[in-house]
């Protein structure tokens, strides 16, 4: 398994709404076209209306690289910056968990 946790901070409320729309459109394509993307979730942060947390889990590094190569992901990556004040990315090394069928 290969994962990411990303914290995005939007510039303002209007940017947050536009970012959420971009995320929704991109998420539909991820769900429909990426069997190697095990989990791709987006959360609003309670008490911080401009922040979003993405939790992404991929079958393996190759599935992540396939995800990154998709035209719709590349479009998301190029468009998102106009809505954001900050981005923090943590790459995750899977240890254990519940709810995901993992082969080691």
From TrEMBL:
Domain (ABM) ranges: 2-94
Sorted UniProt keywords: Monooxygenase, Oxidoreductase
Gene3D superfamilies on file: 3.30.70.100
GO molecular function list: monooxygenase activity
Signal peptide location: none
SUPFAM superfamilies (UniProt xref): Dimeric alpha+beta barrel (SSF54909)
Pfam families to which the protein is assigned, alphabetical: ABM
Protein name: Antibiotic biosynthesis monooxygenase
Taxonomy of the source species: Bacteria, Bacillati, Actinomycetota, Actinomycetes, Kitasatosporales
